[in-house]
Design goal:
The protein has 65 residues and is an alpha+beta fold. 31% of the residues lie in helices and 26% in strands. It has one domain. This is DUF5800 family protein.
Length: 65
């Protein structure tokens, strides 16, 4: 299971027991849109090889309010 923790400057990730940080600029470059408009599902697709997102995608702007 992958755990994503969002804040204004990036995402803390725990993936297969490994913790790391994805900075805002890296996410924007990967997804090609502004950080607040990126969804949690899009970040999951960056991290996991074959993601299985559940629920409705949520924009980072809505998560970090």
């Amino acid at each position: 299971m992958t755990v994503l923790s969002f804040d204004e400057s990036g995402v803390d990730v725990v993936y297969k027991g490994t913790e790391f940080r994805l900075e805002k600029s890296l996410i924007e470059d990967a997804v090609q849109k502004p950080y607040p408009d990126v969804t949690d599902h899009e970040v999951l697709m960056i991290v996991e090889e074959d993601p299985s997102p559940t629920g409705e995608p949520r924009r980072i702007a809505d998560i970090v309010r």
